[in-house]
Amino acid sequence: MxxxxxxxxxxxxxxxxxxxxxxxSTLTGQALLPxxxxxxxxxxxxxxxxxxxxxxxxxxxxxxxVQFQGEYERRYKNQSWNEAVDCQAIVSNWCNxxxxxxxxxxxxxxxxxxxxxxxxDWKYLQxxxxxxxxxxxxxxxxxxxxxxxxxxxxxxxxxYFKYFVFYWRKGQEDVEYSLTSNVxxxxxGAMESGSQYCVQVIAHAYPIEKNSSTSLPDCxxxxxxxxxxxxxSYIFTFCAIIAGLVLMPLLSWYMIRRLHYICCPQVDVPNxxxxxxxxKENIVIQFSKMESYDLITSIELTEKRSFxxxxxxxxxxxxxx
Length: 321
Known about the structure:
Distance between the termini: 198 Å
Strand content: 25-35%
Shape: elongated
Number of strands: 16
């Protein structure tokens, strides 16, 4: 009889405990949800992606949230956690943490499952993640010629990279040229016509002071297009000189005419004002002084006119008898 009581009491105890756990977890907002498994970090060319296995839940809409903790939070903020900006209540099983991981310190990362107001326990990434462990891929390059000028296009790896470029002439591998660039389209300069040139590139991630492996060499033959760049520059210079020789005299003549008009303006004098007994220069001077008047009523001559009136002879013979 005692054994029968024990047999019946064990399932009852299990059901009671399950009910208590369910009620307590519901009241505290913590449901018995499975947490994500197989959390891993994939970091390539300073782009960091956290991923995990989807949680097999047959009820509700499952979402995930991610938090991170850096050296600053551990030392100065009492072990607090920060929410990843683009990784809150997401439906995908991966998250881009490139914006959040911004320093070269160990980061702790964790993720949990959410269904409405119920959440699972946090699942942690092991071990800590350091962005200097990112994998730098071999740059993909393409060499091209534009006339006698060589350009190399480098795969865009992001804003935190600069590129070391090495190029040489085929058959003269012992003479190698190099340059550094922060852009993806790099001008190597003018090359000799009929020669073949090769180039290789190394990508440098300056936030972590780390280099990628050297790219595969790419070679191209430089062909002449008839008129070389030097000939074109000579023609352009010659045309500029000819244009200067033609335009400079015309410009000088125009400036002289303008200065002459400003300093010594000429005014046409009407024919009615012309007098054979009065010098034209005096009339022009007086006429220019009266330009402000709307109507010229009189002109004062600077020289006295002498009228040709025959003088009368007042001698005795000239009096009337």
